[in-house]
Structures are given as structure tokens and as C-alpha cells.
Amino acid sequence: MLSLLAACILLTTPPATPEVPPAEPHLYINETSLGVVLGYNLNEISFVASHCEAINRYMEQVLFMPALPPPKARIELVETQNASPVSVRNMSGEILTQINVNTQEDITGQVAEAAACTWLARAALAGGRPYDKSPLWLRQALKSEIIGLLRPAMMDWWYRQGRTSTPSSLDKIIKGQATDRESFLFWRAVRSEMGSSAEQVKVLINSAQGEDILKLVVKNKSLDENWWLTARANLLLSRTPVSLGMRESAETLDDLSRFVFDLGQGDIILTGPMAVKNRDAPGVKLEMKSRLVALRREVLRQNPVYHNAWRTLGTWLENFSTAKPEELDQQWEEFLKERSTANELRKEIEAALSSGLSKKEGQQ
After folding, report:
1. Using CA atoms in the order 10, 14, 16, 22, what is the torsion angle rounded to 10 degrees?
2. What is the DSSP letter of 323?
3. Which residues 6+ apart lie within 8 Å of 126 measured at CB?
4. What is the pLDDT of residue 248?
5. Contact between residue 187 and residue 173 where contact means Cβ atoms under 8 Å apart
6. How is domain 25-131 classified at the CATH fold level?
7. Residue 69: band (very low, low, confident or very high) from pLDDT cuts 50, 70, 90
8. Which end of the chain is less crowded, N or C, counting CB atoms within 10 A of the terminal residue's CB?
9. Coil, strand, or helix at residue 42?
10. pLDDT digits (tens, 9 = 90+) for 148-187
11. Is 144 helix (H, G, I), strand (E, B) or coil?
12. Residue 316, Cβ neighbours under 10 Å: how many?
């Protein structure tokens, strides 16, 4: 009886399904002008490829430099514990770059650095020189040029920061001890002094091959500390930002809303309501019209944090000569409230940015 039952169980039990081995991860390949990018994450591959093409566009469209001779580099995305974020090696005449995507959440700077280092290594090898002699400041500068090409708003940010920050010494820049921004500004200053693209390319290639840029003489000027400070200041002052930062927007707004008039007893500072009481004075009328013209000309360049404050001041100026005094006083109060709110928000943003920058510098 038991034998018959066992036979029935065996007949009704389905055969065991053999285990299916896990599928092999798919290797994605993207060939760029700089090198062949390989990895297992399609989004990461595309992200790296965009930075590789960016440095190629920079060389062709900004410096008018022909493409580097082959072979192209091999650029691998790897996930390795306790490894360098970016490594570059010479594998029998071919550059191998590895980007360790396991190191941090935001890999923008890391990928831009990898593209810059790969290009410099290829340029050095093409000239028969060691691939790893390019100075750190030049890697920082080209890294920043790549980021700026892909994210133009960063250019404005760096220039605004440069105007309000203490310059790094030339010695620190050359030793690679300065920030990416200062190395970027140094390279921009050198290019500005060089003039022709042919001379700029020559300096770039020589530096990529490890030559000391401080031995260079530009327009009978030695590249010393005095030259650097003057060139940096000229560079920052000659570029009008497309948009203004929070500090610039706040300062310009303060200038537009500060009224100094001579009403017969010397210069005095007037608040908005005090200016309204004297709006029939010829000088006040003329100045308010001028302020409105200036506001309309500059309002589109202002930082979004101060948008509402600028808008409410514009409303007050537009109605200055026609609205009732009590209406203007109410609009002035609204302006003061919006400006105060913007100032508080600016403090919070600057504190958050400072905190994030400190953490990033600590990680480096």
C-alpha cells in the first residue's frame, strides 16, 4: 500500500526546474573623439561621453586646434573600494583612464577631471613626452573649462566669486595648491595675454609636456606675481556677467532705493515716503524717472532671490508721480518687506553653500 502511495506521489510531483545562471551584465561602449568609453551603466557612459566631447569642442572651437593623432584613449568606468577617483596610465602607447564611480554621489568634477587628464596625457604622448608630467594647475583649468562649456552658468559664478575673493598667489597656483577657480582664471589670463590661438596652443602643448610656464615671456612681460594680480583684475573687470549674483543684486537694489537730495539745506537722505512728500521738486522728478529707466534696463539680469524686491520697487517708481501718497506708502512698505525677505533667504543660501564647500574641501 505504501509503495503504491509513494509511486503516486512521484508521478504527480513536477520535475525540479534547473537553476538559471544570472545574466551577464551588459557592457556598453560609446566611442568619442577623445576615447572609447566603457561601462555597465548606460547613463554613466553617456555622462562621461558628453564631457569627452566637450573638451574636444573646446580645443576645436575655442583654441582652433586640430584633433590629436591616434590612438584614442580607453576610458573605463569601474567600481573599486579604496581606489583613486581618477587614474591615468600608459598601456603600450595607449592611454587607459579609469573613473572610479564608487567614490562620491556627484561625479561631475571627477568626470571633467578625467577628460582633462586624458587629453593632456594623449597630447604629451603625441609629442613623444611622458604622459604624466602635466602640471596640476593645467588639469584644474581644463577641468573647469569643460564644466563651464557644459554648464555656462558656472562661468558667471566663478567670475562673481573671483571679484569678491582674495587672489591666490602665483606660487600656490603653479604648485597646484590653489582652487580650481583660481587655476581657471590664471589660464584665462595667460590666454588673454597671448592673443593668437596659435600661441595659446603652443603654450598649452608645452605645459602638457611638463615645461615650466613661468619661463614664458608674454609681450615682453615675465609671468610674475605683479603680472598675475594685474592680469587677474583686468580679466574680471572686462567681463560683464550675463546675470548677477545675490550680492550684486542686493547692492544695486540698495543704490536704486537710496535717495539723496539737496532741497535747499544741503544733501539729505530721504526715505520713500519722504521722497513722495517732495515729488513736485524738479530734481526729485528727474531723478525718479532716471531710476525707473535704470531699473527697467537691469531687472532681467537680477538674481531670482531678489526678483520680488526689484519688482515691487519698480511698481513704486512707475506710480511715483501719479498715485496717491497713501498708496505709494503701502507699496513702499511692501518693497521693504520683500527686500528683508530676500536678505534673509540670501543669508540662508550663503550659509548652506559655505557649509557644502567646507565639506567638499574636507573630503579632498
Report:
1. -170
2. S
3. 68, 69
4. 83
5. no
6. Zincin-like (3.30.2010)
7. very high
8. N
9. helix
10. 999 887 888 888 889 889 999 999 999 999 999 999 999 9
11. helix
12. 27
Would you call 281 helix, strand, or coil by DSSP?
A: coil
Q: What is the rounded distance in angstroms from the CA atom of residue 118 to the CA atom of residue 349?
A: 35
Share of the chain above pLDDT 90, in %: 57
Helix orientation angle between 136-150 and 108-126, rounded to the nearest 10 degrees: 120
Mean pLDDT of 82-87: 87
CA distance 307 to 67: 45
- From residue 6, how far is each of 13, 14, 15, 16, 109 by CA, in Å? 11, 14, 15, 17, 68
DSSP letter assigned to residue 265? S
Nearest to 108 by CA among 187, 180, 191, 183: 180
Residues composing the chain: 364
Cell match 539737496: residue? 262
Phi-psi bin for 236: left (phi > 0), alpha (psi -120 to 50), beta?
Answer: alpha
**Residues 106, 164 contacting (CB under 8 angstroms):** no
d(CA 342, CA 250): 9
Q: Are 304 and 250 in contact (CB under 8 A)?
A: no
Tell me which residue has cell 519688482: 311
The set of cell numbers assigned to 146 is: 569643460
Query: Given this model, what pLDDT does residue 360 score?
Result: 53
Distance from C-alpha of 236 to C-alpha of 315, rounded to nearest angstrom: 33
Spell out where the chain has E strands.
Answer: 28-31, 35-39, 73-78, 86-91, 94-100, 217-218, 221-222, 259-262, 267-270
Rounded to 10 degrees, the C-alpha dihedral 198/203/209/215 comes to 150
169 phi and psi, to 5 degrees? -70, 155
| All cell numbers assigned to 23 | 545574466
